[in-house]
Write a structure and sequence with these properties.
Oligomer: single chain
Shape: flat
Largest sheet: none
Order of helices and strands: HH
Distance between the termini: 59 Å
Number of helices: 2
Number of strands: 0
Radius of gyration: 18 Å
Helix content: over 70%
Low-confidence stretches: none
Structural class: mainly alpha
Length: about 55
């Protein structure tokens, strides 16, 4: 059987996709059944905290 070549970029992209998929699943579990308006307040609070930290 012939082997297919695996390059560093293809191995890296598959690892990234796996990580991103796991990250999305974790975010979905944390969000649970939260409505969009409720989620908006959480996200805006996090963005505000990041902005405060970047100005220190």
């Amino acid at each position: 059987m012939a082997r297919t070549k695996t390059t560093a970029s293809s191995a890296q992209s598959s690892a990234t996709i796996g990580f991103e998929a796991k990250l999305w699943l974790t975010a979905d579990k944390l969000r649970n059944n939260m409505d969009a308006p409720e989620n908006k307040h959480v996200v805006l609070g996090l963005i505000f905290q990041v902005e405060l930290k970047s100005h220190e």
